[in-house]
């Protein structure tokens, strides 16, 4: 009898441990603000992630450098009771962290991470800077000039110039294009502190699109923290309209850069938005296509052309709705046309046959990453926030391992045939010191001319 009671007690203890594991729920703060709570009781740290929608990048009258400078200036430029430049040291003393950044031009995201016993002071500092930032003029000038210099340096690089040309080809004169490239004359020189004030006042409201709280905080404390963090912010004063009309018509373009030391080649085509599903398959497929030195593209270029360079693949977002697949690499100028052919043929074969080798081995790196995700509250919250913005149910970030297990050879092949572009559907962009290196291509001398290539 004693043994039976002991076993019963052990089962109850195990059940209690299971109940104490991470959970996800949709909650509402006392102030009426909805949020997702990832209750992770094993963590001392807490992180709050907030996504505010924005259409600043889509509107013709706005200065497109404003969010880039503004996201840095809000925390660095001071607030009532906090001198400019002071917040970094204060957060460091508290072992807290705060960042604000623009996410694919559709959202401004704020992340605040702290230890539970430092919550009140950390949130007070963040609220002051969100609610009434000083936007110190000297810090404004410093950040604007530094960002402009960094962009100019990047734009001088051939590979960067190639992607600028691609954006001209895809978006032409749409306002979103300059938000992506920040290369129109006057973008930084004409930016004023008043632009940042207007952007701040319309962006930071107490009605964001998504909020995620993760860590060792219950719903009562999490709700109170959100209300205090957003205290004093206004309700949204305008509706957000995010409309763009990209043109992914296949073209072959060569940007002639006589001073370039190397030639770069890129292929760009559209992929479905992540909100439509299939992202796990995409991760496996793109890594097999061009993720490392064992990938299809790398091996094709090395083997067929006996090249000393490789070729890779990846995916990126212009916006949440406009996602691209890109294949890219540096190539020998004299072999540019041959590399284009080899890459296109290798991609076509891959789309037809799929990745080789054991599927479980291809899943293994993702399985490890997903299994480790709950060890880091910030990474867990970021994953959950992105899933929420895509419209998935709360707690998806805890179910990524299940999604990965559901991937089969069949789902991979279905994804390749239904979502990946045909080999002839790519926009091809080369940047080369030889204007004749890609026969039949539309030759341009500055990225903006790509908009007129047929």
UniProtKB/TrEMBL annotation:
Coiled-coil ranges (or none): none
Gene3D superfamilies with a match to the protein in the record: Metalloenzyme, LuxS/M16 peptidase-like
Keywords, comma-separated and alphabetical: Signal
Key word DNA-binding present: no
Record's signal peptide: 1-15
SUPFAM superfamilies, alphabetized: LuxS/MPP-like metallohydrolase
Pfam families: Peptidase_M16_C
Record domain Peptidase M16 C-terminal: where: 191-364
Alphabetized InterPro entries for the sequence: Metalloenz_LuxS/M16, Peptidase_M16_C
Entry protein name: Insulinase family protein
